[in-house]
Specification:
The protein is an alpha+beta fold. The protein has a single domain, classed as Ribosomal protein L30/S12 (60s Ribosomal Protein L30, Chain: A). Helices cover about 55% and strands about 15% of the residues. A four-stranded mixed beta sheet has the order 1-4-2-3, sandwiched between helices. Strand 2, helix 3 and strand 3 form a beta-alpha-beta unit. Helix 1 packs antiparallel against helix 5 and helix 2 packs parallel to helix 3. The longest helix is centred in the C-terminal third of the chain and has 15 residues. The protein is globular and about 30 Å long. The two termini are about 10 Å apart.
Length: about 100
């Protein structure tokens, strides 16, 4: 996986622009504070469906397919399934780094 992406994700957390966990992300998105959703590949099907609907409804990009351990490791946690970024500039940089890895 893209090391720079995960390093920048950690930086996003340190900057206070990252929301962690199902309930907090759901609340942020319902109040229009989310700019990017990141789902782990181990997330439950219902969780993925719910956040995909929120992504489409709020026109927010969605990244998925990363293991929950990899996401948690770069944030100093054992694992995490749902993340939400609430800063447009950080979102643009994360998407740029993610897309570099795909190409």
């Amino acid at each position: 996986m893209n090391n720079k992406f995960f390093q920048f994700l950690g930086l996003t957390k340190k900057a206070g622009k990252l929301i962690e966990g199902y309930n907090q992300c759901e609340d942020a998105l319902s109040h229009g504070r989310g700019t990017l959703i990141i789902l782990s590949e181990e997330s439950a099907v219902n969780t993925k469906d719910k956040f995909k609907r929120l992504s489409i409804k709020n026109v927010i990009p969605l990244i998925e397919g990363v293991s929950n351990e990899t996401l948690g490791k770069c944030l100093g946690r054992p694992e995490i399934n749902v993340l939400c970024v609430n800063d447009k500039k950080m979102t643009n940089k994360l998407l740029s780094l993610w897309n570099e890895n795909i190409e």
